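Lab manual, section 2.4: Encoding a predicted structure.

Procedure: take the sequence of the chain (403 residues), apply the prediction step described in section 2.3, and record the output as structure tokens. A sample record is shown.
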Amino acid sequence: MHKVFKINRLFTIHPLFFAICSCFLAITGCKEAHTPPPATGQGVKLDFAKNFELERFDGFYKLSIKVFFHGDKASSSNTNEYILYSGDSSAIPSGFDNLKKIRVPVNRIVSLSGNYYAYLKGIGQESKVVGFGNKNFTADPALYEAIEKGIVKDVGSGPTLSEEAVYSLHPDVVLTFATGTGFDSDLTKLSSAGIPILLLSEWQESSALGRLEWIKLFELLTTGSFEGDMDGASDSHPQKFNLYKIERTEYEKIRENAKQYPCIKTLVGAPYSGTWFAPGKNSFTGTLLSDAMGCSVFTDDKTSLKLPLQAAFSKAKEAEIWINAGPSKEALIASDSRIQKLDVFKSGNVYYYDKLTGPSGALDFFENASVHPSKALHDFVIMLHGTKEEQKSLTWYRNIFYN
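Recorded output:
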């Protein structure tokens, strides 16, 4: 009887217990039903760039940039992610808390590379640069003068970077690149102080049009809009989104016209300290060369090459033209006396990219060739296939024998 009572009592309690549990589950279930699902974005299609990606969300973008150290191949472990947003950052949903956030459009920029200034100038946004790495490292006369007058502050670069100078400018963003050296620790200090640091890697794009496409990211940073966000953006905002289309169209036109020419055997790079350094086929220079109907005597399908001198000189015998050699005949001979015996050296078909320089000797090629690749391709076509008269139209290159 006693056992039956306990069992009966147990079963009389259970309905109440289950009722309480049901209410609890109903309440918590309602809360879960109102929890918003993780935000999902739409990938932004890029035509050529490989080192950055964008996802478009409601009110913001997620930006992913591959970071390179000493030219190593990028992997998922060295990809930096950012949120580019307009409005209130508190509106960014959960799931992005650990990502670095940059409010766009930015209005105060510290640029630690002349290449970034060239991108900004290409879209008419250069006035937003309030600080620059080092006046001697720009080829732009206007920027050099602005630094001289104090309109743009010289903050130093590399080991001379002044954190205090950067702080004093209250920048919305610092544009730079990873070096894999102690310099990067200085950038970490700036980031810890709340200054957004954007590490860019346009310089590691393997194609000329890939480098050009980074201009879209500069447009997003400075205008808050990306190409394709607005119908008719190019018509209503003539300075926005046009340069990429113009340069791409002209580049592809020149590339197509170059197909009429035979492929010219080309020597690239030069010796230094017992090694021949040269851009590989899968590089900015390598792409320009192949698009201009030039065939490198070095067939390695890499980004950059470091060749034993004996192997390099053996291949150099095949060359009809030499590009990216060095600034003078004397300097080349001084680097290795065997150079003067090469047929390509004797022919005088030797070129270097120092025709256009800045006030302190900085090479404009490294700043503007990425932004105006059609001009760079034009130079390559003229060097490979043009006449001496046509060489007067070269923008960055010159024949070191005759100019």
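Check your result against the sample. Residues 42-240 form a domain with the Rossmann fold fold (CATH 3.40.50.1980).
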